[in-house]
Design a protein that fits this description.
507 residues; mainly alpha; Hypothetical protein af1432; GMP Synthetase, Chain A, domain 3; 3 domains; three-stranded antiparallel sheet; three-stranded mixed sheet; 14 helices
Amino acid sequence: MDIIHVFISLVIGLLLGTIGFLFLVYSNNKRTEDARSEANLVIENALRKETEILVEAKEKALNTVSKVEKELNSKKFEIEKSERKLSEKDNELRSKLDSLNYKEKNISKLEEKIRNKEMELDSITAQKVSELEIITNLSLEDAKNQLISEAEIQSKEEIERRYINHVEEIKLESNDIARKIIVDSIQRFASDVVSEKSVSSVTLPDEDMKGRLIGREGRNIRAIETTTGVDVLIDDTPGMVVLSSFDPVRREVARLSVETLMKDGRIQPSRIEDVVSRSNSEVQENIHKAGKNAVLELGISGLPNEIVKTLGELKYRYSYGENVLQHSIETGWLASLIASEVGADINKAKMGGFLHDIGKALTHKIQGPHAEVGADLCKKQGIDKDVCAMIAEHHDDIHSSVEGFIVSAADAISAARPGARHDSLENYVKRLSEIENIANNFDGVEKCYAIQAGRELRVFVNPETIDDVKAQSLSREIVSELEKTLTYPGQIKVMVIRELRSIEIAN
C-alpha cells in the first residue's frame, strides 16, 4: 500500500510539474510576441517621424535655397549697376584725359612761341642797351649806380617829409582817439551812485519807545554808546534816533542793534550787549559777502581773504556822495576797458583800478594817505608789486607803468562823470520814490522796492490775479512807463516776481 501511495504521488507530481512547465513556456511565448509587437510599433513610429523630419528638412532647405537665390540675384543686380556706373566714369575719365592731352599739346606750342618771343626781346634789349651806352657814354653798371644814388636821395627826402606829416597827423588825431576811448569806456560801463551819508537814522514807532531807549537815568543809551562806539542822538530830530560816528561799520552795527531792540522790546544793558554782538557778527558777514560779490562781479580770482574783507568794508564808506565800493568796481571795469583799447595789460589794469581806494577802509585806523595805506596793505598780502605801485601812484602825476596812467584816468572818469558826485540826497530819494510809485500804480502789484541806487526795481505781484504771461507783459509795461515818465542816468532793470506760497500748520 505504501508503495502504491508513493507511486501515485510521484505521478501526480510529474503531472503538476509538466503542467507548470507548459504554462511557463506559454507565458514566455506570449511575452515574446507582445515585445515584438511593441518593437514593430516603435519602429513604425520612428520611420514615420523620420519621414516627417526629412520632409520638413527638405522644405527648409528649399526655402533657404530660394532666399539665397534672391539675395544672389539682388547682389548680382547691384554689381551690374555698379559696373555700369564704373564704366560710365571710366568713359568720362578717358574723355577728360583726351581733352587734357589736347590742351597739353597746345600749351607746349604756346610755350615754344613764348620762348621765341623772349629770345627776340633779349636780343632787342641788348641792342638798345648798346645804343644807350654809346649815346650816354656810360656803361650799364654805371647807369644803375647813378640811378640808385638819385633814388636814395629822393627817397630819404620823401620819407622825411612823410614822417613829419605823419607826426603832425598823429598829434592831431591822438586827442580825438583818447577822447573816443574814454567816451566808449564810459558808455560801455555806466552806473549811478547813492548820496553821501555821515549819519544813520532809525524811525521811532512812538514816544514811549524813546523813553525805553534812554532807560532809567540814561543807562540804556549809555550802554548802546559804550558797546557800539557810536553817538546816539534822540532829541535832535523828532520821531528819529540819529546815530553818528566816523566809522561807517560801527554806525551800521548800531543801526541794526537799535532796530532789533525796538522790535524785540526788551531793552536793558545785558540785552543790549547781546544784540550788539549779534549785529556785529551780521555786519561782518555782510562785509565779507559784499567783498566776495564785488570780486565775482569783476571776475578776479586769488585775492587773499583779508583783502576781500577790507573791500567789503567799503560798502559802508562814501566819498563826496559816491559809494567807494561801487566806485572801485566801476574804476576796475573802466580801467580794463581802456586797457583793452590801448593794448595794455587788462588784468593788471583791472586789479589796480579795483584796489586803488582800498586804503579808504583803513584811514580811520591807520595814519597816512589812503593811497599809501592801501599799497602797504596789498604788499603785506602778497599782491603783485606793479599793482601796488598803481595803488600808491593813482593820485600822482608820474607813474611807473602805462597801466598806472590808465588807473588814474579811470578813477578820474568814475569820479568826475555827470551824476557821480553831484546828486543830492533829496533828488536821490525823490527819484527812488517816483520809480516805486510808477510800479505801484499798476493793477495786481502788491509791493515794490527800488534797489541798487535805483538801477533795479523789484515788483512783487499777487499770484491769484497775475499769471505768468501777465507778469511778463507787466514788466514791459512798467519799463515803457518809466521811459516815458522819468529822466534817469544809466538803466533800470525791472524784475517782476510772482510767488505762490502754500502754508499749512501741523498740530
